[in-house]
Specification:
Elements: E1 4-5, E2 12-13, E3 19-22, E4 28-31, H1 34-41, H2 53-59, H3 83-129, H4 131-134, H5 141-167
Antiparallel strand pairs: 1-2, 3-4
Length: 172
Amino acid sequence: MRIETCYFCSSRIYPGHGIQFVRNDCKVFKFCRSKCHAAFKKKKNPRKVKWTKAYRKTVGKELAVDPSFEFEKRRHLPLKYDRTTWNKAIEAMKKVETIKQKRQNSYIMQRLRKGRELETERDVKEVQRDLSLIKSPAAGLKERKMEESVLDDTRESDEEMEIIEDGGEVTL
């Protein structure tokens, strides 16, 4: 028994499930459910329908290029298996599946990390732009009082200098 893939959404079709459509030129299309069959009949493009694997790969949400995908290619040459080669093939399939899962998970985490960085940058820019809305009027009172006292001191010293110059007396 062979597990096929849906022509439209690329999901798995187990034996006894799905719909088969044969075109006049003897091309066979296999669909996992009527949703995929109806979308195919409506001539929808799988790369533009958001719930398909083709869309997710073209947009960059899923890993598109990986050497482990080579193992899934369909081979048309029949092989004769004995028990040892069959066991080795099953073990290799399990290893390939775990490697593929690890790579996909790391790709997803890398994508999410990049999105988080962009989100924090956007938040920082927004806060800097609208800082006057967030900052309370009483937040800078101490700083303003300190600045005013410094300005007052400089004004007083300037006035003293003017008085000294007018009087003709120079005192230190």
